[in-house]
Design brief:
This is Minor tail protein gp31 C-terminal domain-containing protein. By secondary structure, the protein is mainly β. It has one helix and eleven strands, in the order E-E-E-E-E-E-E-E-E-E-H-E. About 5% of the residues lie in helices and about 40% in strands. The strands form four sheets. Strands 5-2-7-8 form a four-stranded antiparallel sheet, with no helix packed on it. Strands 6-1-9 form a three-stranded mixed sheet, with no helix packed on it. The longest helix has 5 residues, at about 115-120.
């Protein structure tokens, strides 16, 4: 069975201020198979006062059933925002969560916006994903 992949995240308000406190939940969509039966669970990660956090998740790309994690952000004030579903890769190094969050489907493909360095750093690329490279600088 695959070991956990560390995800990092940074959350900001529309004015650029960090989201202070609260939690991010990651709910696995269904059971999966990876040398054992992986039971769906919801995992929570605290949001630090600077809007950042980390979480270790089972890399569901290793599974056989096309599962995903649904992400929900709950602020300290209790408001909830659903970010969408992500597929967690297998990675020995931390993966920034924003590189996994799809925009909207385009021609049946998932769309991700990454920097060139983030794209080059991906361990594997999904043939059902359209990768858009964001200009830096």
């Amino acid at each position: 069975m695959s070991g956990p992949t560390q995800l990092t995240f940074a959350l900001k308000t529309p004015t650029g201020e960090p989201v202070m406190g609260g939690k991010v939940t990651f709910a696995l969509s269904a059971f999966d198979l990876d040398a054992a039966i992986v039971i769906p669970a919801t995992i929570e990660a605290a949001i630090a006062s600077d809007g950042t956090g980390t979480v270790g998740l089972w890399p569901n790309i290793a599974g056989l059933r096309n599962t995903s994690y649904k992400i929900t952000v709950t602020t300290a004030a209790g408001s909830k925002t659903e970010i969408g579903a992500i597929i967690v890769p297998e990675s020995e190094t931390p993966v920034p969560m924003h590189t996994l969050v799809p925009l909207a489907p385009l021609g049946g493909l998932t769309v991700l916006v990454l920097t060139e360095a983030e794209y080059e750093g991906l361990e594997s690329k999904n043939d059902q994903t359209l990768y858009l490279i964001r200009a830096e600088g």
